[in-house]
Amino acid sequence: MFAQFPQQVWVNEVVTRDGFQSEPEFVPTETKIELINKLARLGLNKIEVTSFVSPRAIPNLRDAEEVMRSITRDTDTRYVALVPNEKGCARALELAVDEINLVMSVSQSHNLANMRMTCEQSLQQFTRIAEMTAGTAMRLNGSLATAFGCPFEGSQAQERILHFIDAYLERGLHSITLADTTGMAVPNQVHDLCQAVRERWPELEVTMHFHNTRGLGLSNVLAALAAGMNQYDASLGGLGGCPFAPGATGNICTEDLVHMLHEMGLSTGVNLDGLLAQSSALAFIVGRDLPGQVGKAGPRTLTRPLPESVKQLMQQHGQN
Amino acid sequence: MFAQFPQQVWVNEVVTRDGFQSEPEFVPTETKIELINKLARLGLNKIEVTSFVSPRAIPNLRDAEEVMRSITRDTDTRYVALVPNEKGCARALELAVDEINLVMSVSQSHNLANMRMTCEQSLQQFTRIAEMTAGTAMRLNGSLATAFGCPFEGSQAQERILHFIDAYLERGLHSITLADTTGMAVPNQVHDLCQAVRERWPELEVTMHFHNTRGLGLSNVLAALAAGMNQYDASLGGLGGCPFAPGATGNICTEDLVHMLHEMGLSTGVNLDGLLAQSSALAFIVGRDLPGQVGKAGPRTLTRPLPESVKQLMQQHGQN
């Protein structure tokens, strides 16, 4: 099981997009910029900064341009924006975003609910976006939402998922994300799908996007690691979820993920102590306790001093 | 990874002991009895009912005798009591408890903090308890607390753990529990220890006891399953933790565990819908929201009706 684990794992931080988009209050632009700059300095080599959507659709991200323009672009970090259509793509191109993330749901009904388009229409749009970006340095990532289950339709056929990956790659997309939009994935299902994808496309860059809705976020990471997957989306403090997916809450928490990976001996290049400090700051920003657990309990390596009474008992029993 | 999974998994419910012992308010005796009877009827074949401790040490379990005497003893369920000493053992014998659970920490300092005894003294006591119970039908389970790390001393040597299992078995204990008392276990460590135990004692009955303190409870179950372990402690709603272990919170949640196991195709014999109903009732009993997540999100198989607007879009696009 552990023999197949990749030794180096990449973490893609999504808090300023997936986390902030559904907050009840607008997070100030300056706060977003500062957080993104700090996260890049902590070693997160990919950050989903914002979304170039209509400010009417997601008012919380109405400052997308200003945020993208004002952050300090670390050369070791890939800065990503979610883009729902050609207009969003044009905005991303103007700001020379490193990568855009295109999203379609595997399930027809969820894509209609989320994007107001059929899957076929989404793919046609991706074709046009690929044409718009041809010859630029901007990379295209394609996300497959509801890949592990749709809240309306339930499980999705593996064939359908593989077919859509094909469709993405035919259109020139560079990488894909398999997203468990509403937290329906279970470990053996994750392992099966990851293995099928790896067998067919051994070199494809694949990111896994899990939610902890039913408590299985990190278990699903474990299953994906066992299938050799080495890129994971996560959100600082576990903030976020999809505002259009009923009952969907809780991206997996970045610091809990990094803690697990490090304690299993895998490298991420991310500074865990720094993340924990930023997670505390984030709880203050959003004004509430966050789902992340390592922030509350501390890393497992953080032992506590012996209570005085136990010290005395140790001495009585000749134990030091 | 999944090929090694046992097809049948046994769940040991600990909520009325591990959960209720650290509640701020005393849970009424009648409520405890009713809950235990309901849990047995839901297919939980092992229930840790209470603890025969001093009522001064744990006032919440001062009704241990009355609870044990008044429950309806289902013949398919094994009723267990935690016992800290000979006096507790005598009380358990009087009530013909099916099994007693003896606890010692692997770490010397934690055993002194928790039991006010050295490990050697604990083992001597287990010898006397084994003598007291010889020839009775009462089974003896020995728990090894802090098996995956001590909050004072950190990691514990695997040799020390194996040595103590030997010591338990020499004294005639019938089964063991490997307990992650303060939620320090990580999956590869769990897998290593379980494999070492299984190799040396292929037939030994071993229960895994995990806490979700750092978000890794179900991931650790997955790792233990991959090593063939088929018995798990869990607490309804995720209630509980060790009152003597600093920062220790959150047994893994029974309904989240059962949900994961069933969705991976493993059998538990437990009625998940019934558990979810009891978990809701439990939140009402303790007067607060519980950590369990499937209770909030619903099982992954519970799909939602299509919103009217999406139905209309489906029709427009000729999709049914």
TrEMBL record, chains A, B:
Domain Pyruvate carboxyltransferase: residue ranges: 9-276
Keyword Lyase assigned: yes
Record-stated family: Belongs to the HMG-CoA lyase family.
Organism: Marinobacterium sediminicola
Name the record gives this protein: Hydroxymethylglutaryl-CoA lyase
Domain of life: Bacteria
InterPro entries per UniProt: Aldolase_TIM, HMGL, PYR_CT
PROSITE patterns, alphabetized: PYR_CT
Stretches assigned to coiled coil: none
SUPFAM superfamilies: Aldolase
Keywords: Lyase, Metal-binding
Gene Ontology MF, one: lyase activity
